[in-house]
Design a protein that fits this description.
Elements: H1 7-26, E1 46-56, E2 63-68, E3 72-76, E4 82-86, E5 103-104, H2 109-125, E6 133-144, E7 148-155
Antiparallel strand pairs: 1-2, 1-5, 1-6, 3-4, 6-7
């Protein structure tokens, strides 16, 4: 069942295991969610974000930002047919819904902002029938432990094939 290792091999396995655990602990603060990083008191931050679409300007020069209310929007496809889109169709994490209420930042504000960035990229990649949205943007108000507040702008990737 188990491999019978000699004393030198056991010492090597033990040293590798301890080095791995030490690496996880020492690099814990570098990860957005802080896994393996010791924090005596957890972060109590909140985020509140508003979702926008960058759409091609009617003038043909640049883009205009259009607010997405309640995570829903209407857009036309390449043939001009109107479609309805929902943020919730792709994003199932209740901690990143743009409904105008502060959301507790599970695992800290940095982790929540990273999740939101990934959600913007995922939704952008799966709205093929939207030929108007050049990219999705989230404007986030982050409250760090109830003390300081900062405003962060997260831009999703530019979409190809937008007319």
């Amino acid at each position: 069942m188990f491999v019978d290792l000699g004393p030198k091999a056991r010492a090597a396995v033990c040293a590798i295991w301890i080095a791995g655990q030490a690496a996880l602990i020492l690099t814990g603060s570098m990860r957005a969610e802080g896994a393996f990083a010791f924090r005596m008191f957890p972060e109590s931050s909140t985020i509140d974000f508003t979702l926008y679409r960058d759409v091609l300007s009617q003038s043909g020069h640049g883009t205009d930002e259009v607010r997405v209310a309640e995570g829903k929007w209407l857009a036309r496809d390449a043939s001009g047919t109107l479609h309805k889109f929902h943020w919730d169709d792709r994003v199932k994490d209740g901690n990143i819904f743009p409904y105008g209420e502060p959301i507790h930042a599970s695992y800290g504000a940095r982790a929540q902002l990273e999740r939101l960035s990934h959600a913007l990229a995922d939704v952008s990649a799966h709205i093929d029938e939207d030929a108007e949205t050049a990219r999705l943007v989230a404007v986030v108000v982050v409250s760090h432990n109830g003390r300081s507040t900062e405003r962060v702008r997260i831009e999703g990737p530019w979409r190809s094939g937008v007319r």
